[in-house]
Amino acid sequence: MQSVRWDPSDLELPKRVMKYGHLYPKYWGITLQKANDLICQNLLRLTELTFSGNPQILTRHLAKNALVNVTYEPARPTDSRIVFNCNNALMLTDTQQLPAFFTPEQVNLTKETKLPSLYPLKPTLNLDEVQVYDWETAYPFLEGFKHAMPHTIFVQHNSAEEWTLAQKQSKALIHSHATLAALARRLYGADVGVLPRPLSIQCVLADRGRHFTFYAYQLNTLDMADQEGVKNQAWVDTDSSTAVVDDVIVTTDLPYTLFSLADQMEGLMGYQMYTEKQSVQRYPIRLLNTYNPAVMEKLLTLYATHLHLGHHHQQQQPQGQRPADGLNPPPLTEKHVARRAVA
Question: Of 207 and 4, which is predicted with more confidence?
Answer without folding.
Answer: 207
